[in-house]
Amino acid sequence: MLREAIASMNPDNFLVRPHLELVERFADGKAWESMSVVDLAALGDRVAKLPTGLDPEGEEAKRFDVLVLNTQLSVLRGEPFERERRKVMAIAGALEDMPTIPAIATQLELIQDLQADEWWENVSYPMLEEARRKLRGLVHLIERSKKGVIYSDFVDELGVSVEIELPGAGGAVAGNEFVQFRKKAEHFLKENLGEGVVAKVRSGQPLSGADIAELQRILVAAGIGGDETFEEASEKAGSFGRFIRSIVGLDRAAAKAVFAQFLDDKRYAKNQIQFVNLIIDELTERGVVDASRVYEAPYDMLAPSGPEKIFVEADIDRIFKLIDDLNRVSN
């Protein structure tokens, strides 16, 4: 679906032209067979925002998609979803009121099931996905049959003015302000992964003081951050270099090169190699891996009691040393 959306983009569109290289590359199905974190970042940051030539879908169908998506996420996370459930049931009830429409009549059994508490007792992701696919094209009919106009008659009055302190205005960097700083830094850095010092961060090489200064200079020049945000980033991540690495990740080839012996040495079993590959995946995505992480999900799927159960002590020491070396971003 994503490939078709990209293939429909007009290369002559002035918004598409600056990103034509990526658009033409990912319009080809072969490009999707082997995706890297860098590819996904480029698609998310540069291609996703471009206009497509596909026929636009109705807003009602998209809103229903979002409603069901939020329900699915709650189910998968084990979180309550009563509010979403009631909304879906209300939509099903409105559809049931129009049984003479052939498209609705075809799905009437599902529509009635959705309104029963029993259907929701052990609801699963596949059940919700099936309901979404079958009903998303019908929800616009509800608006057509029950559209109403609400009139209000009141006088808008200006109340008493009060002073409100804006978050982040002076003093320490507010939490939301730092979140915004990180988002802006992430967007900018992923747009400039080829920049010399950014590429060095991703290569796994130790950064000098001059490198750190250059990273900060680049961000300031782009209008992103300042001394306060840089200081807080360093405190939160352990160093400014680690903060940048957590955003841009580690080049997968660099991570694999460090663990090459584990991947190539035939004396290691399949589950041991898979365990090391999980470390490489996390380094590629997050840039650093704390040693304690290898005792948590998803590592515990391969070693429920910790890596000590699948590696000898000498190998564990080597793994932790390699992780520590890669985590040491700055000199």
Please characterize this protein's 3D structure:
Helix content is 59%, strand content 0%. By secondary structure, the chain is mainly alpha-helical. The protein has four domains: 2-47, no CATH class; 59-143, no CATH class; 175-248; 252-327, no CATH class. Helix 5 (82-96) runs antiparallel to helix 7 (108-114). The two termini are 45 Å apart. The model is unreliable at 168-173 (pLDDT under 50).
Short note summarizing the structure:
This protein is an all-alpha fold and 331 residues long.
Give the topology.
Elements: H1 2-7, H2 20-26, H3 37-47, H4 59-77, H5 82-96, H6 102-106, H7 108-114, H8 117-121, H9 125-135, H10 140-146, H11 175-191, H12 196-203, H13 209-221, H14 227-237, H15 240-248, H16 252-258, H17 260-264, H18 270-286, H19 313-327
Helix pairs in contact: 4-5, 4-9, 5-7, 14-15
Keywords:
mainly alpha; 19 helices; globular; 331 residues
Briefly note the structural class of the backbone: mainly alpha
Flag low-confidence runs: 168-173
User: How much helix, percentage-wise, in residues?
Assistant: 55-70%
Q: What is the overall shape?
A: globular
Which strand-content bin applies to the residues?
A: under 5%
Number of domains: 4
The run of helices and strands is HHHHHHHHHHHHHHHHHHH
Mean model confidence by pLDDT: 84
What does the largest sheet look like? none
The radius of gyration computed from the alpha-carbon positions, rounded to a whole number of angstroms, is 26 Å
Number of helices: 19
